[in-house]
Amino acid sequence: MSHADVRSEGAALAILRSTFGFHEFRYPQADIIADVAAGRDALVLMPTGGGKSLCYQIPSLLRSGCGIVISPLIALMQDQVNALRVVGVRASCLNSTMTLDQVRAVETALLNGELDLLYVAPERLVQERTQALLARSDIALFAIDEAHCVSQWGHDFRADYLELAVLQERFPAVPRVALTATADARTRAEIVSRLELHGATQYAVSFDRPNICYRIALKDNARQQLLRFLREEHVGHCGIIYCLSRRKTEDTAAWLQQQGFEALPYHAGLSAAQRADHQARFLRGEDTIVVATIAFGMGIDKPDVRFVAHLDLPKTVEAYYQETGRAGRDGQPADAWMVYGLQDVIKLRQMMAESDAGEAHKRAEQQRLNALLGLCEINTCRRHALLHYFGEESPDACGNCDTCITPVETWDGTEAAQKAISAVYRTGQRFGVNHLIDVLRGADTAKVRQFHHQELPTFGVGVELDAKRWRSVFRQLVARAYLEVNLDRHGALVLRDECRPVLRGEETIALRVDVGKTVRRDKKRGGSIAVTDSVLWELVREHRRQLALDQGVPPYVIFHDSTLAEMVNVRPRTRLEFADLSGVGASKLEKYSEGFLGVLADYADQVPAESLS
Ligand code: ADP
Ligand code: ZN
After folding, report:
1. Atom number in ligand 1 closest to CA 23
2. Ligand 2 centroid to 37 CA: how many Å?
């Protein structure tokens, strides 16, 4: 490290503390900032909520000129700009929603050196007008956010991102930092080659989200399970509930409203105005639930989403990780909660089979679904499995997922599996689960008689298990890909080669004992943010709400919940004590300390802090 780097490290820390009000850098923010501030390129792979923004915001403040941030998420730009202005950073944006007058004003400010950070949409950046503007401006750095959008194989591909390589040719002296929360090696290599970042230092942070508690349970009565989860753990919280169909998002939202929750549907079939309205209400809300299809989420960086619930299975582990990752960006405890059943698997497989995609693509999709089902059915730590899937090693047990909190009971299902598989085989691989269970349990039904299945050797060999248990057996056999659903025959089960060793008695199978109830979160870890005084908590929240309303920004732009919680727990009495709270920088101290200290003082007159201890 050079002397200049050391100097900038001190300066970076000073900005972190005075402007942003945080005490320490998170690993490896300090290294990235030092690199970029010194004019070197960097590629940053960090999970959502890891703290990527500071990695370009602080270097922009350290270097001469304005930092240009390329971001595809126009809807969020204004919030990001507002959040920066609140802490005293001179920020603006350029995008297609602005009038020509607004654009001209921003351009003039940039040319006059009056901006620290400028957010630009990619399509705007590659325009000649913008390129000419940048050529005449003093530029501190280029930050390419959501850099995985260059990947043509990914879901978020943006053609404009491919053109960002010109930055390297036109501005060879300006450092570039590319950032993404997408981990896999292929995407990473694509970013490097398409953006010509061969010389960039790569920073990859663990993709673990330790504050998220993962829970996956068997669907029993999904609505009641959801209701219990919300009532017991998430009253007054923001969250996202994912469903597969538009219809279901609307029905579920309407039903939750009847149950007293502030719930809004969101899907691609709503009008643009409705979608914008629901998204805005969610972003600004403190206890709003959005019930959405996967159309909702890209670019939702609301920090205080306390839970993400899945009422239907996502299609892949990647999708599960991305969707659940929208919870708890502020680092406070959050939940990823899902219920699923055999019907979901059949429905998803059906949707995949009916899509217009080519055979190879369909096969790949089925395999990715199998990986997700594997995650659902494992009886070991979910987090370990999830991270392992992304190529990351971690301890065997995390202590913060359902299987760690309540270890899964298993039973030797070898014999049951043999009976189930043989029932499928003897009935000609033409029947669905319900009939197979009737055969195993020796039921006298019209269908049994119609096909003379009472004459089969497997008829009635499974009376020792009830229908529910048999359902569980079949689900697990399908999830583990011993059996397969034949989609041309309305959900008939067929054998896969994998079941041969089981039939021959060469393989034993440990099956999960299903519990209808979802595991409760570990109390010690707290289901929500821990405050010592809920009355005072409501008072400071109300004050924050008022400030947010006056300034037309979401409440979290004023202060995050974590800062409010610390305020309630510490109860600062002076400006100096207030400045010590994490999240309070010079600008917020100036703007807000008086108001909040007033609230705290009024409350102290009624309830002295000493009386509590
Ligand atoms: P990302 O873009 O990686 O998803 P952000 O940059 O939005 O994450 O940061 C996530 C949250 O963490 C934000 O609320 C941010 O203010 C907070 N944060 C980032 N760095 C620090 C730090 N060094 N100390 C405390 N909080 C931080
Ligand atoms: Zn675990």
Report:
1. 24
2. 39
Domain carrying residue 242: 212-405
Tell me the best of 13, 43, 54 to mutate to test the pocket of ligand 1, counting ligand atoms within 8 Å of each CB and taking the most: 54
Q: Which of 152, 187, 204 is the last residue of a domain?
A: 204
26 within ligand 1 shell (Cβ under 6 A)? yes
Is residue 317 within 8 A of residue 371, CB to CB? The reply is: yes
Kindly state the DSSP code that residue 259 receives in the 8-state scheme. Answer: T
Does residue 146 fall inside a structural domain?
A: yes
Instruction: Tell me how far apart the 2 most distant CA atoms of the chain are, in Å.
Output: 90
Q: What share of the chain is helix, strand, coil (3-state, %, to 5)?
A: 50, 15, 35
pLDDT in tens, 317-338: 988 998 999 999 888 899 999 9
Residues 23 and 86 in one domain: yes
Contact 518, 229 (CB under 8 A): yes
Residue 518 lies in a domain: no
Point out the ligand nearest to the CA of residue 56.
1
Separation of alpha carbons 102 and 100, rounded Å: 5
Number of domains the chain is built from: 4
Residue 523 lies in a domain: no
**Which of 451, 482, 512 is the last residue in one of the domains?**
512
| Tens-digit pLDDT profile for residues 519-554 | 676 555 444 567 778 899 999 999 999 999 999 888
Q: What percent of the chain has pLDDT over 70?
A: 94
512 - beta bridge partners?
410
